[in-house]
Amino acid sequence: MRGPRIRKIAYVPEAERPVRNDLVRVLTAATASFYPKDARGDAMHAERWRVRIHRTRDLGKLRYTASSVHLANNHPVKWHKDQPKRWPALPAVLTAIRDARHDMAAAWETFFARGMLPESWVGEGVRRFWCDACEGSGDRNGWYNGCTTCENKGATAAPPSLAWAVSLTVRGVEPLVRAELLAREAVARLAPFGVAARERRVVWRVGEVNTSDPPKGWPGGCLGSPDSEAWTDLWQAAVGEGHFAPWWKAHIEMWPKGDAAPLCPHEPAMELLGLGFALDAVDADTIVLVCPLLGGAHG
What we know:
The chain is an alpha/beta fold. The protein contains ten helices and eight strands. A hairpin with a 3-residue loop joins β7 (278-282) and β8. The longest helix is centred in the middle third of the chain and has 16 residues, at 173-188. The termini are far apart.
């Protein structure tokens, strides 16, 4: 008598595991759960994707259509109902990564070739991506040991992981273009407060979006009076109405009015938050923008 059929688990090379882990995170967040009413539904949904991806010997057999992810056996798993609105470019992004054999440097070139990145990024040496290995310092271990991931530069020419590449590109080209314009406008409006007007390199980082504090390097002279009773009343009113960025909204409403008043830098910064991105830091040479991780708190 034959014993029970045992499904074989694919052997996963060590170098491929980070890609597979990122793919599990992305597909867990972006697909419809089978367990929407179960208290443990999110964990069960993630585990189901972990098993699916682990059992897929060749990730190149995954297909991404407008409605579904098709597994290697052609079984379709529908996207989350909000996917067309929140992540409209996701099927095209994952297809490009698959076609590049999940190599992120090659995938980035594929994005360029397929018009999936802003034209201003093509052939431009001023667009970089934050190095998580050394936290942007260029020195992973401190003192004299340089970072081999970014070659001591603190940033890389392409996103370092599948999760980063997907998170940055799933909204499409226009939000990226608009985000950089808003960030540059906000920094330009800081000139009266001591931030020199000059060309700065844009560095993108993927992580938590902070909606309640100023970016690093934001001059204190343009913060108004957040401890004043009037500012507190405006802030509490914004919180009460459920505004997505009450700290910024209160500063905008406190800003001086009239032709003699400088342009308010908080306005473009808050509009940037409305797109889902944030101005993370400003220094003499760099503007750091942060994009939420798909599957994270704001992604």
